[in-house]
């Protein structure tokens, strides 16, 4: 983090997929500070997932620079990913996946552990906290593939929280959740932002937002069409307006 609390700084970035002739996202400049709660909106194919994966160094920048947690994303992508949680948009666990919920959550610690060290007390404590926070206590010994989609989604969020990240990126985390679980998970995310974690979430669900200022970032056709803060009750109309071609 730098002096003014900036955790993510993208400076005119362009990102292309391997072998593609043109970059998918083009000329994005933005900064996100510790404790911000940011919603990334925009139509399908606009580049929202690509934006998140550019932030954590999973995709190659063809132009511009990205600094995350004070690290150069191009050169220190692995280090960045140890400090940034990323809950992916699509996942699938085969019913026969041979890992329990607890083991899946422990995988969040693997990057910090490295390949030689075995989990220690601090790792088990972080996993336990994450499991409790997401209300997964009763499911900890269940094979992950036998959980419902929503329960698996919560386990993946817990896995990323076990990492104790400075930034949490989430890609449409509410898509598998029933309304009640949505409210519960929104509450967890709000509390994380209050504790200083930057929460950056692709979402089309605008209820259950925190009371304070919400950052809205809208992508359209690979470029930034809106970047501002507003009240929670204004989010939906502003995202809607910025998502449609004028
Ligand atoms: N692995 C990939 N290889 C090539 N192009 C991709 C890949 N993933 C996404 N794209 C393209 O990048 C654009 C933006 O995709 P994406 O970031 O997934 O959009 P969104 O998340 O906003 O729906 C789309 O045109 C999509 O076809
Ligand atoms: Mg997407």
TrEMBL record:
Keywords: ATP-binding, Nucleotide-binding, Transport. It comes from the Archaea. Residues 8-246 form the ABC transporter domain. Signal peptide: none annotated. GO terms for molecular function: ATP binding; ATP hydrolysis activity. InterPro entries: AAA+_ATPase, ABC_transporter-like_ATP-bd, ABC_transporter-like_CS, Metal_Ion_Import_ABC, P-loop_NTPase. Coiled coil: none annotated. The keyword Transport applies. This is ABC transporter.
